[in-house]
Specification:
heterodimer; A: mainly alpha; 11 helices; B: four-stranded antiparallel sheet; 10 strands
């Protein structure tokens, strides 16, 4: 015998589900409001445009220009995506369309292991391998002066970090396309490459955009590995070989030592708010494209 | 009209690993007739159809042996140009799979693969094939919509039009009405009957009444074997084999 009858149990269960749903749905708003309240001190004294577009960062003199950090973050993310996107797309197509099934069975655990490595390990690997590689080989070879700690190093490390995530999603997307669709295109006399190019890629497009958007958001917010190799110099990078600074690194490096400087606390909260706003923006853009291309 | 078969299958064996899917198949498929391959699920009908346009190539685990002659070409010979070969046949599968494009482009893509790039000709032919598949009047104002917005029955007719657009000689249909409502099924059946003067049609089905309605020839298959074949009158009117009698009587198990 149960304590409650069937209908009562239904009510209890569904209420409990609605509460969890609300909690999850409210969380981003609460975060947003919290960060806004914390950074309102800064927003009170400076205009939003000033904060975003001013290039001078000197907290002790009361100068809070976030432009170098924003640009640094954008550079690192964009270059990382430029490396990640083609590698992931081509690998996913190759693994799902050209190789035998057992190959995928071997690849999957390898990808999962890569995805599970902590970001600080990637950072170390970046310091020990990528940074010297850039300063000793790539830089001299291309005839640019670089100390290795640079946008490029951060992008490299980042792309290696997000490749497993993006690749896993892409493989799932390509595997979920029904074989019959492929057979339909082939039966018209299309070659395998034509089938992939005109039919499978088209069919997978919303998923591909979502996967890249997911990678982008991860790359933009990644803190530790980037912080370790990007150089942390507050300056507008002129090329990918220059060092830079990113928004997450700004917060991680300085939170805890900013107590003596007025408004510093507020400034870092504003950086967090910016991060949140940007990832929200990415999400919206992504969503727009997915809806747009999902009609087929 | 010459009486030599359009397709003749000789000693066809297909196996996947240790399972034999098709055993020693010998079938003659006459030109400009509807040949129905009849049999319960899992008897190898679909595999047989896939052998005909070499979609079996997609499955490396399948071993295909024997001979399939289409107009004196053995299409199982490795040197055969499979892209040309597949364009000799339009395929209609169990469920419609429209390409992820507009209605118009579904047909235009098939035309492009056939080598037609001229826009006016494309226009004309898209209309022609949609009419042939009995679809034009319903969708003439919706050509730029995604094909996925059509109803399932319309999608299936679109797939038929797409299959015709590669200018095939043969139509392969794999239980093409199994996902459709009776009216859409009737549309497809009528279209087949109308088209058989121009095409050789191979229809796989497990629906007896459908076979009775439109077949000229019937091949009855069971568990990878051809049990009986002949004209529809012979097989339905006077079945020789015990298994055929049972299946036709509906007491098969």
């Amino acid at each position: 015998m149960y304590l409650l009858n069937r209908k009562q149990r239904h009510t209890v269960n569904s209420t409990w589900m609605i509460i969890s749903l609300l909690l999850v749905a409210l969380l981003p708003f609460l975060l947003f409001i919290g960060l806004y309240l914390k950074s309102v001190l800064l927003l009170h004294d400076y205009s939003l445009a000033d904060l975003i577009f001013s290039k001078v960062w000197r907290p002790s003199a009361g100068k809070f220009g976030f432009y170098p950090f924003i640009i640094g973050s954008v550079w690192v993310t964009v270059v990382a995506m430029l490396i990640t996107a083609p590698i992931c797309l081509l690998t996913a197509i190759y693994v799902t369309q050209y190789t035998k099934k057992f190959f995928l069975r071997i690849m999957h655990p390898a990808i999962d292991i890569l995805a599970g490595i902590p970001s600080v390990v990637y950072g170390l690997w970046g310091i020990l391998v990528i940074v010297p590689f850039i300063s000793r080989y790539l830089g001299p070879w291309l005839d640019v002066k670089t100390m290795g700690y640079s946008i490029l190093a951060a992008s490299f490390v980042l792309s290696i970090m997000i490749i497993p995530f993006v690749l896993n999603i892409l493989i799932e997307i390509f595997r979920s396309i029904p074989t019959e669709l492929k057979e339909a295109a082939l039966s018209l006399g299309a070659t395998q490459w034509q089938t992939i190019k005109h039919v499978l890629l088209r069919k997978a497009l919303p998923g591909i955009i979502a996967a890249f958007g997911f990678g982008l958001a991860r790359a933009f917010g990644e803190t530790m590995a980037v912080l370790m190799v990007v150089g942390n110099v507050v300056r507008l990078p002129k090329s990918v070989f220059d060092p830079g600074y990113t928004l997450p690194a700004l917060i991680a490096n300085n939170y805890g030592e900013m107590l003596s400087i007025p408004k510093y606390d507020s400034a870092l909260m504003f950086a967090a708010l910016l991060l949140l706003a940007v990832s929200l923006f990415f999400n919206l853009v992504m969503h727009f494209f997915i809806v747009r291309y999902n009609k087929y | 009209m010459d009486n030599s078969p359009k397709i003749s299958i000789r000693n066809l064996n297909v196996s996947a690993g240790k399972t034999q899917i098709l055993r020693n198949i010998n079938i003659d498929i006459p030109k400009n007739k509807i040949t129905v391959i009849l049999g319960p699920s899992g008897c190898g009908k679909t595999t047989l159809l896939k052998c005909l346009n070499r979609l079996t190539d997609l499955y490396p685990e399948l071993k295909v042996n024997g001979q399939i002659m289409i107009d004196d070409n053995n299409i199982l010979a490795a040197k055969e140009d499979i892209y040309k070969l597949r364009q000799q046949m339009g395929l209609l599968s169990q469920r419609p799979y429209p390409l992820p494009m507009t209605i118009y482009n579904n047909i235009a893509y098939a035309l492009k693969l056939r080598g037609i790039r001229n826009r006016r000709e494309t226009h004309k032919l898209v209309m022609h094939y949609l009419q042939q598949a009995n679809l034009w009047d319903e969708i003439r104002t919706r050509l730029r919509e995604p094909a996925s917005r059509l109803s399932i029955g319309q999608q299936q007719r679109l797939c038929l039009a797409r299959g015709l657009a590669v200018n095939p000689e043969i139509i392969l249909a794999d239980e093409p009405t199994s996902a459709l409502d009776p009216i859409s099924s009737q549309f497809i059946e009528e279209t087949f009957v109308r088209l058989k003067s121009e095409y050789t049609i191979v229809l796989v089905t497990h629906i007896l009444r459908q076979a009775k309605r439109i077949a000229d020839n019937v091949v009855f298959m069971y568990l990878g074997d051809v049990i009986e074949q002949g004209s529809v009158e012979e097989v339905f009117g006077n079945p020789k084999m015990e298994k055929t009698k049972l299946y036709l009587g509906g007491t098969f198990n």
